[in-house]
Specification:
Elements: H1 12-21, E1 25-29, H2 33-41, E2 46-49, H3 53-56, H4 68-79, E3 86-90, H5 100-112, E4 118-122, H6 126-136, E5 141-146, H7 152-155, H8 165-181, E6 185-189, H9 193-202, E7 207-210, E8 218-221, H10 223-227, H11 244-260, H12 274-277
Parallel strand pairs: 1-2, 1-8, 2-3, 3-4, 4-5, 5-6, 6-7, 7-8
Helix pairs in contact: 2-4, 5-6, 8-9
Length: about 280
């Protein structure tokens, strides 16, 4: 089911080319068939099946409990929408950092079983060698620096990163290392605007910001934050375009009221089934 047949399918090289053309990249998360369907209909460039699903879909406190099977299941559902947008799947906690062989195996599942067109890896360190292996095998990789949610315990919470000169310098070095290793794009999360500007200027590959200011080559947001379906905390960097949570609650209240007062379902039209009209014939 191609949801946006008028559009040419977007590939990793096309995402890179957008930077050269000065075109902003639009990315958003999606976690199932309907969210991927509507995101693609809206014309986004990149759909991320993020491990943020642990928080906004599964109700977990962070992303650490998301498994490979979770990502495979949700990415498979999104892939069934056959989006023209590039479908990117997150590599879950520890799969990219425990061993290169495990990382290759996980990426293989996300491509073969889940239908992803690329994978996203948080951090550096072992991710560098894994990125080299995957890109050599033809698997497109997105990097992720700054506030990396899978490192939230080590970072001490959801805090702005790279605020000091030495931290900013290190992030720039890591960004260059990831580019050299072969990532085709880099997510920059929750860092100062100026740091994101410098990194974006220095790199040939596009940067995609989330809470990193206006200077990145594109932006990515968690869908549920944009549409008001994430109860509780609302990130400062997210703009709410509609409050579907309130609309959903109101609709269900009306439904409940109609059921309890007998307004739903309405009295059915007469059905011409004479053999069922007399209950004595079948009770």
């Amino acid at each position: 089911m191609n949801t946006n047949g008028a559009r040419k399918r977007i590939t990793a090289p096309e995402i890179v080319a957008k930077k050269a053309r000065g075109e902003k990249i639009v990315a958003v998360t999606a976690y199932d068939f309907p969210t991927a369907y509507y995101a693609d209909r809206a014309g986004v460039d990149l759909i991320l099946v993020g491990d943020s699903l642990g928080m906004v879909v599964l109700g977990q406190k962070n992303t650490l409990g998301v498994t490979v099977d979770d990502i495979v299941r949700h990415c498979s559902a999104a892939a069934r929408a056959e989006p023209s947008a590039l479908l990117v799947a997150d590599m879950p906690f520890l799969t990219a950092h425990s061993s290169t062989s495990k990382g290759v195996h996980t990426a293989g599942r996300l491509i073969q079983e889940a239908g992803a067109g690329a994978v996203k890896i948080e951090g550096v360190g072992p991710a560098i060698e894994l990125t080299r292996r995957l890109t050599a095998a033809g698997v497109p990789v997105v990097g992720h620096l700054g506030l990396t949610p899978q490192s939230v315990l080590g970072l001490g919470g959801w805090k702005i990163q790279a605020r000091k000169p030495d931290q900013a310098r290190r992030l720039l070095e890591d960004a260059r290392a990831l580019q050299e290793a072969g990532v085709f794009a880099l997510v920059l999360e929750t860092i100062p605007d100026e740091v994101a500007r410098v990194v974006t200027t220095e790199l040939e590959i596009p940067t995609i910001g989330i809470g990193a200011g206006p200077h990145c080559d594109g932006q990515v947001q968690v869908l549920h934050d944009l549409i008001g379906l994430a109860p509780g905390f609302h990130p400062r960097h997210a703009r709410r375009y509609v409050d579907l949570g309130a609309a959903l609650e109101k609709a269900l209240q009306e439904y409940a009221h109609d059921v309890r007062t007998g307004r739903f379902p309405e009295e059915p039209e007469t059905v011409h089934q004479p053999e069922l009209q007399d209950a004595a014939t079948w009770t």
